[in-house]
Amino acid sequence: MALKGNKDDFKFNKDNCKVLYLGKHNPGLQHRLGSTGLGSSSVEKDLGDLVDKLKMSEQCAAAAKKANRMLGCINKGITSRDKDIVIPLYSALVRPHLE
């Protein structure tokens, strides 16, 4: 299916483009898109996940940090330790970050 409209309707922002170098033996060359030089990055977010040279360590650490923050909010904000209250909160707010 083709998109309708002029080519001017679809703007491409070259300033938002970055190069993510992967692999151990990558020379790290300077890349250009037209006349604009592209910056490099060591980590980028893609669909909510951090991509870091295909390592999961940074992604896991970020997810654990977010889950711990949510758990801290539950502990500070809820005075009751009743299972009927804490378990649904944990299931809704903390567990999705860990999965």
Automatic annotation (TrEMBL):
Protein name as it appears in the record: Rna-directed dna polymerase from mobile element jockey-like
UniProt lineage: Eukaryota, Metazoa, Chordata, Craniata, Vertebrata
